[in-house]
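User: My advisor, Dr. K., asked me to get a structural model of this assembly before our group meeting. I'm new to this, so sorry if the format is off. These are the inputs:
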Amino acid sequence: MLTEATPTNVARKPFLGRIGEVPHLGLVAALVLLAIVGLVTRPENFATSSNLVSILALASTIGVITVGMTFVIIGGGIDLSVGAVMALSSVWATTLATQSYGPAVMILCAVLVGTGAGLVNGFLVSYGRMVPFIATLAMLVAARGLAQRMSGQRTQLVQQANSAIVELSTTRVLGLPLLVYVFALVVVLGWILLNRTTFGRRTYAVGGNPEAARLAGIDVRRHTMLLYGLSGLCCGIAAVLIMARTTTGSSTHGDLYELDAIAAVIIGGTLLSGGRGTIIGSILGLLIFTVITNLFILNGLNTSDQLIAKGLIIVVAVLMQRRGALTGT
Amino acid sequence: MTKTPNRRGFLLSGAVIGAGALVSACTSNEPAAQPSAAAAAPTAAAAAGGNDQPGTQVTIGFSAPAADHGWIAAIAKNAEAAAKQYSDVVFKPVEPTNDINQQISAVESLIQAKVDVLVLLPNDGQQLNQVARQAMDAGIPVVNLDRVFPDKLSYRTWIGGDNYGMGVAAGHYIGKALKEKGVTNPVIVEIQGIATLPLTQDRSKGFADALKSYGFSVTAKQDAQFTVESGTEVTANLLQAHKKIDAIWNHDDDQGIGVLAAIKEAGRDEFIMVGGAGSANAMREIQSGSGVLAATVTYSPTMASSAIKLARLIAQGKGMSDLTENQVPQSVTLASETITKDNVATYLPLGFES
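Assistant: The format is fine. Below is the predicted structure of the whole assembly, which you can bring to the meeting.
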């Protein structure tokens, strides 16, 4: 522990310095600003509990993916395959054969397929020495294709007998659908793993300076592989949530999720070059996106304007972080 | 749109396997409008005029986009099934693709193979116009399926659906239903497909125009992406924006699965909903009568079966035997039919699986 603490602390110092200052504050301020916009433009709709629940439920699926993505990016990689892997998991878990074993096996199947695909990514990157961008791009293409082939381009409905899965979305405990709890649990576990365990410290070390991490005795390859496996696991969990929400498995699920997840992570203050970042930041970044979508639809504005707004926010967020990082160091 | 042309390679094999498995289960035919609308059963083959009797052997080339949507999958499947019905038809499909370039070269290869007639569903009518024109210039008649070529010299016959008419059918259904209920100033919500497509704009305009004749207008509209997931997301937000809704028209039954999931999740049932396209799933939902889905307006992929039949007649130099003319008409627009609980049983065999 002690020997390891030295490099990780060096890597984390600026991030620790920033945590209470610029990025999170900026993100929270942005969320507050959006909330004010919502309260002013649609006072009767925005602040209702059902709308807030709806925002959380919308954020859940991609939120789980964002947690995995945060790990990968802090570890110095990138995972472009998340949306496709989620689609593949949802399709595999909803084939007639899988469905005949009941909901528990369907969930297990989704999680295993996701993790398996993630580990393949990790293997290609760490042991195959492929650039993460290329390896996961290949997985994106292949997983989407396999999902289409398995489903025969059909939308596979979750059968009545397995409606336990759909209940994740329809059953509410204390006013919140179960899937929001799943999302919260993933965030909490992710936070603990990143901030309170050796695994988390190693992730920062590997992303910050792989060579130094190797010299400090970390098995960088194995660790990198596990990071992609973790991202795949998150995709598998997300697949269960999307099955619950849409009552289907489909090869069209998760289209462009990779871009939304990466954007959320970057807005949240994680460096694309690795070594720095927080899960809370990523989740705040994602919530900003979800709230924007919600606000635009509440006000009856169209998708094109939403996309423009999201693009601007990415640019502004990154510019603000650069200023923050400069003044912070 | 196609960020990964490579993945399309996987599609073909998937589509072929899927089609093969389903051809026998689900052979669809045009209802009365076509002379050769005999049911798949061989006993009914003696339909009007004997156009179904074997004639000169013809080779029909076929090119369509790759299936990433139930409707397109049904197009390829229906075309193949229709061709198989005839002993005098050699069906020559090329690998489906969503890449304009690939489709152009695929069509070129069919021209070089000197097929007798071409059935083309272009990815984009504008961009494939040139190659369709080449086929026509080479003496190969082109049957243009659904997405129209801008240049009339580029096709012999056009057959397709009526997007504007779809909106009109949905508008009339909703308008009538709300008038009967005596609702004044209703909240009408429209969930569109991909907003940038002309077909979406046509549907939307038809809907607004039909509603206007009842003195109603669309309260809110939002576009989705024709996918289940986008349907869920947009609907979840729309339901928050409008606490009381009288009617929803959703342009597309594929994304409709997601729309219905979001409605169920929110526990809302104070409105009626109308779908679009006519998927088997939507029809089953209408038949069960348990949810909000009251009707759907068709945009039927059976048009592919009819396109093959028309192509065969053109190549054999025959006309449509129910009509007076000796040749097939220059254009055929399918009517958008309204499927409700009352007539759903007759439409179920024509529904496509999403």
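One thing worth pointing out at the meeting: The two ends of chain B are 21 Å apart (CA to CA).

User: Perfect, thanks a lot.
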